[in-house]
Design brief:
The chain has about 50 residues and is mostly beta strands. It has one domain. The chain is built from no helices and five strands. Strands 2-1-5 form a three-stranded antiparallel beta sheet, with no helix packed on it. The termini are close together. About 5% of the residues are buried.
């Protein structure tokens, strides 16, 4: 199983999963500003 972290977009507030790596990513729902994973709004870690 791929380990993913969940973040909530500050713009549209949708929750989405990203790989837990320190790279830039954009919200897949609103395609808003890029967020740095390390500084994102962390929701939970899917390491179960």
């Amino acid at each position: 199983m791929i380990k993913m972290d969940l973040f909530q977009c500050d713009n549209c507030e949708n929750i989405y999963a990203v790989y837990p790596t320190p790279v830039m990513h954009s919200c897949p729902y609103c395609q808003g500003e890029n967020h740095l994973v390390a500084e994102g709004k962390f929701i939970k870690n899917n390491n179960d």
